[in-house]
């Protein structure tokens, strides 16, 4: 029972799709009930491969090994399972330090097409809702398939928490948080390298012809901008020392759907950039969207610490959506 490196990913669907394409059987394990408190929210998932490799996290690490074991048994049996761990559980040897109880649903019968459709929606950056009838799901088997899953887009919503309604779990899959960063220098480089470690998608642009980071898009002029870079799940950060690059980029960003816009520089620099935008016709509401200096005030001094403060501020702002 081995975690794939890295074992924790918030979104287990890409791994499940890849394993299915390679010919493996896959179980999708979902946290469907919380009695008390839990370190992980409702809807958290594991994807388990038939050889015991897995990704994701259901608890703080207390039950994952047991879940992988149960998932392999369920795959071999060809049936779904619903299990409880912790409080009121028959598994006395598996304890949760928080004293709570959690319910998990092991789905071995989910159709490959549904998993691929979820990934397709995610690639298109459209939130999607998976409804799971847990009672009906326990009745199905490889010999007696029955529809207990329904998938539909929910593009009109910015953020929808997963919820349990009776015996039906409504599990949402949001697009990955995207960090759209413009700039050059070591803070820029550190942000591009650190963001994927917290599960963020990175889109980076730089005017520096010497930039060697993979995937960085050359920024040939300040007004080079594609509106498709921005959506409601995108945070933008400007990390320039030459502030003449900022104006046209900010003019585009303040008219975008980005949930966060931050720019590097001192308070004086921030005042100057906002004044320039006012002179270009930006209104107070647009100007108020720009956070400067960028990042939470955590006493950061080094480029990695500054990049960390930016990511912390993006997480904080995202949680308010």
Written overview of the protein:
The structure is a single chain. By secondary structure, this protein is an alpha/beta fold. The chain has two domains: 13-173, no CATH class; 178-319, NAD(P)-binding Rossmann-like Domain (Rossmann fold, 3-Layer(aba) Sandwich). 29% of the residues lie in helices and 24% in strands. The chain contains nine helices and 15 strands. The strands form three sheets. A six-stranded parallel beta sheet has the order 12-11-10-13-14-15, sandwiched between helices. Helix 5 links the parallel strand 10 and strand 11 (201-206). Helix 5 (186-194) packs across helix 9 (303-319). It is elongated, with a radius of gyration of 23 Å. The chain starts with 12 loop residues before the first helix and ends with a helix.
Structural class: alpha/beta
In DSSP terms (H or I, runs of 4 or more residues), the helix count works out at 9
Mean model confidence by pLDDT: 90
User: What is the string of SSEs from the N terminus onward?
Assistant: HEEEHEEHEHEEEEHEEEHEHHEH
Distance between the termini: 37 Å
Gyration radius over CA: 23 Å
Uncertain ranges? none
Tell me, briefly, the overall form.
elongated
Domains counted in the coordinates: how many? Answer: 2
Question: What percentage of the residues does DSSP assign to strands (E)?
Answer: 15-25%
Largest sheet: 6 strands, parallel
Q: What's the total number of strands?
A: 15
Helix content: 25-40%
Which sequence of strands runs across the widest sheet?
Answer: 12-11-10-13-14-15
């Amino acid at each position: 029972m081995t975690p794939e490196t890295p074992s924790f990913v918030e979104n287990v669907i890409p791994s499940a799709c890849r394993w299915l394409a390679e010919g493996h059987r896959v179980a999708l394990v979902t946290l469907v009930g919380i009695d008390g408190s839990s370190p992980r929210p409702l809807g958290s998932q594991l994807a388990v491969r038939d050889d015991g490799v897995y990704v994701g996290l259901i608890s703080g690490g207390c039950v994952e090994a047991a879940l992988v074991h149960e998932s392999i048994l369920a795959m071999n049996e060809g049936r779904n399972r619903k299990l409880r761990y912790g409080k009121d559980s028959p598994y006395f040897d598996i304890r949760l330090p928080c004293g709570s109880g959690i319910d998990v649903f092991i789905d071995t019968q989910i159709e490959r097409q549904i998993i691929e459709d979820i990934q397709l929606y995610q690639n298109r950056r459209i939130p999607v809702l998976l409804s799971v009838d847990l009672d009906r799901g326990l009745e199905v088997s490889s010999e007696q398939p029955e529809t207990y899953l329904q998938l539909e887009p929910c593009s009109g919503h910015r953020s929808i928490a997963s919820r349990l309604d009776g015996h039906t779990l409504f599990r949402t899959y949001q697009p990955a948080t995207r960090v759209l960063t413009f700039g050059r220098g070591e803070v820029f480089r550190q942000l591009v390298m650190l963001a994927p470690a917290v599960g963020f998608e990175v889109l980076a642009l730089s005017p520096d012809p010497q930039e060697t980071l993979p995937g960085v898009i050359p920024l040939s002029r300040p007004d080079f901008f594609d509106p498709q870079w921005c959506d409601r799940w995108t945070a933008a950060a400007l990390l320039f020392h030459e502030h003449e690059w900022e104006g046209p980029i900010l003019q585009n960003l303040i008219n975008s759907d980005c949930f966060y816009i931050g720019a590097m520089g001192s308070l004086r620099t921030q005042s100057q950039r906002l004044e320039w935008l006012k002179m270009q016709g930006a209104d107070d509401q647009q100007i108020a969207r720009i956070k400067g200096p960028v990042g939470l005030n955590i006493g950061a001094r080094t480029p990695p610490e500054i990049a960390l403060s930016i990511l912390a501020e993006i997480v904080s702002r995202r949680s308010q959506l």
